[in-house]
Write a structure and sequence with these properties.
- With 211 residues, the chain is mainly alpha-helical.
- The chain has 7 helices and no strands.
- The chain starts with 6 loop residues before the first helix and ends in an 11-residue tail after the last helix.
């Protein structure tokens, strides 16, 4: 008989829950505008898994989705706007000649890195259910104040892109992996990095400072 308390059984259960979160995140992101709420709900659910709390991922996911959609959507739309501007600037500078254009492109890339570090913290923090202004400020502070964690979390998000670059012919396989478990697995790895810091923050409405 299989021992439900064994590490193997628990690992299989965790994998199944991550697959559920992956499917919900993809489906809830399809309208694009709701992708921010989908990411926040995924992080909230996965953070509970990291803490070994929640037992019903679908119910937990939709609970976070409805509670955090406003803050998460504001953040997502801001991220889309800033990302679009940075992408256009990089493309436009790439059509120019000279060292000044290269320096400017480097500046745009630096800006993109900072935005990525901010996003790494924003969506997990949005699952706390606080307002946009406070969540965005906390994300900015933690992005730089916890730079090693920010960089490590960002690395997990870049792995799919790196794998595709290293093996362009395997994009169908990578796409299948992302569709089955990859998206939520990346977010789970991010949450393993940020959970300790997030749990050290004062509760909602508290005036204390983070450790």
């Amino acid at each position: 008989m299989v021992d439900p308390n064994s590490r193997t059984w628990q690992a299989l259960g965790l994998a199944a829950d991550v697959v559920v979160v992956n499917a919900l995140t993809i489906v809830c992101s399809l309208p694009v505008v709701t992708a921010g709420a989908a990411l926040s709900a995924a992080h909230g659910t996965l953070l509970e898994m990291v803490r070994e709390e929640g037992a019903k991922p679908a119910r937990t996911y939709f609970s976070y989705f409805t509670r955090t959609w406003r803050t998460a959507t504001f953040g997502w739309l801001l991220l889309l706007a800033v990302g679009s501007v940075l992408g256009w600037e990089y493309w436009a500078l790439g059509r120019m000649d000279g060292g000044a254009a290269l320096v400017a492109q480097a500046g745009v890339l630096a800006g993109a890195i900072l935005v990525t570090l901010w996003a790494v913290w924003f969506f997990p923090l949005a699952s706390r259910g606080e307002g946009f202004a406070r969540t965005a400020k906390l994300a900015a502070l933690l992005a730089l104040g916890k730079l090693p964690r920010s960089l490590l979390a960002s690395v997990w998000l870049l792995i799919p892109a790196v794998l595709i670059i290293l093996n362009p012919g395997g994009w169908v396989l990578w796409l299948a992996v992302m569709a089955i478990i990859g998206v939520a697995l990346m977010l789970y790895l991010v949450d393993l990095v940020v959970v300790e810091t997030i749990d050290s923050l004062p509760p909602r409405g508290s005036t204390g400072s983070a450790q």
